[in-house]
Design a protein that fits this description.
Helices cover about 70% and strands about 0% of the residues. It has about 250 residues and is mainly α. It has two domains: about 90 residues, Rna Polymerase Sigma Factor, Chain: A; about 140 residues, no CATH class. This is RNA polymerase sigma factor (Sigma-70 family).
Length: about 250
């Protein structure tokens, strides 16, 4: 086994060693990626004092996953950062609900409270979803939701009728919403769970084809993990404003 900091073993070799019970291998991974993890954590938390807690929880979570025979075979740092992002998001949601304070004025109806860390995450999720849309959908969303153009104004430029532009805009909004929800789903390891995870956003929005919807129902019937993931993004769908109604989210995508 390589001593920490030696660098002779690749991350892939170390991940394999952790799965066989070599805890020293995980120590090497920890030392190798700890500094980068802390830098990444600073961009996710509201208070610098929370950084070390988030980093420790993330490394512990990934270690437990690896010891259970799951988790990444390669790209350890990418998996670590993805896990950290989702842990941070869940923490922010809990903190948003449970905050102890003597000052209740900011919870008055006229002064809604905004959690900076949660908003930062939501903006990144919305921007990533927007970039994944087809160019024509991005264009119609930008023109209708950001520039404020009407379907009648866009119809000549797009070579469509006003009604067709309105239909295209509706499809684009639903596509953005599904992709936005999909950003909240952590990648799974089991092939069938990966298949389901890639479609949970569509499941929430009712956009799955009949064949996929049947396969999803069958999968959810036996997979408790995916039911929990589905419940999480249903909650997100319920308590957050749609990304296309938060124009600053789209604007951050450039």
């Amino acid at each position: 086994m390589t001593v920490p900091g030696d660098g002779a073993d690749s991350d892939t070799d170390l991940l394999g060693a952790v799965r066989t019970g070599d805890t020293a291998a995980y120590g090497t991974l920890y030392q190798r990626h700890h500094a980068a993890a802390r830098r990444f954590a600073f961009g996710l938390v509201s208070h610098p004092a929370d950084v070390d807690d988030l980093v420790a929880e993330t490394f512990a979570n990934v270690f437990a996953t690896l010891r259970a025979g799951r988790g990444p075979l390669v790209a350890f740092r990418a998996y670590l950062h993805t896990t950290m992002r989702h842990l941070s998001y869940r923490r922010a949601r809990v903190d948003r609900r449970l905050e102890f304070t003597d000052d209740l004025t900011r919870y008055d109806a006229c002064e809604p409270f905004t959690d900076p860390a949660l908003d930062r995450l939501e903006r990144s999720f919305a921007a990533a979803a927007f970039r994944q849309l087809p160019p024509r959908w991005r264009d119609v969303l930008w023109q209708t939701e950001v520039e404020g153009s009407t379907p009648a104004e866009l119809a000549p430029r797009m070579g469509l009728t006003p009604n067709a532009v309105a239909v295209l805009a509706h499809r684009a909004r639903e596509g953005l919403r599904s992709l936005y929800l999909q950003q909240h789903v952590t990648a799974a390891d089991h092939p069938e769970c990966r298949w389901a995870g890639e479609r949970l956003g569509g499941q929430v929005r009712g956009r799955l084809a009949p064949r996929d919807a049947h396969r999803m129902r069958t999968h959810l019937g036996w997979c408790g993990d995916c039911r929990n993931r589905l419940a999480e993004i249903r909650e997100v769908d319920g308590f957050r404003n749609p990304p296309y109604r938060q124009r600053h989210h789209v604007e951050t995508s450039g």
